[in-house]
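ok trying again, last paste got cut off:
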Amino acid sequence: MSTAYVLINCDLGSEEFVISELKSIEGVIEVHGTFGAYDILAKVQAELVEKLRETITWKIRKITKIRSTLTLMGIEGQG
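nice, full thing came through this time. structure:
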């Protein structure tokens, strides 16, 4: 199982909309609003790294009102 954490910045006031959209995407297993440099944190899992990449690139990053993302890939066998 591959895991990634996606840090998201979105348009001001659109956090609830983006969180709702993220929760409807298969593979997104946790979503949290945050304070600080980023607005939202999403945890994404998939069996294959390629599927994880597709989810982030073609589903998450295409959500309207998202301005930018930063993806942190989990290391297998750690934790």
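cool. The beta strands are 2-10, 28-33, 40-46, 66-73. The longest strand covers residues 2-10.
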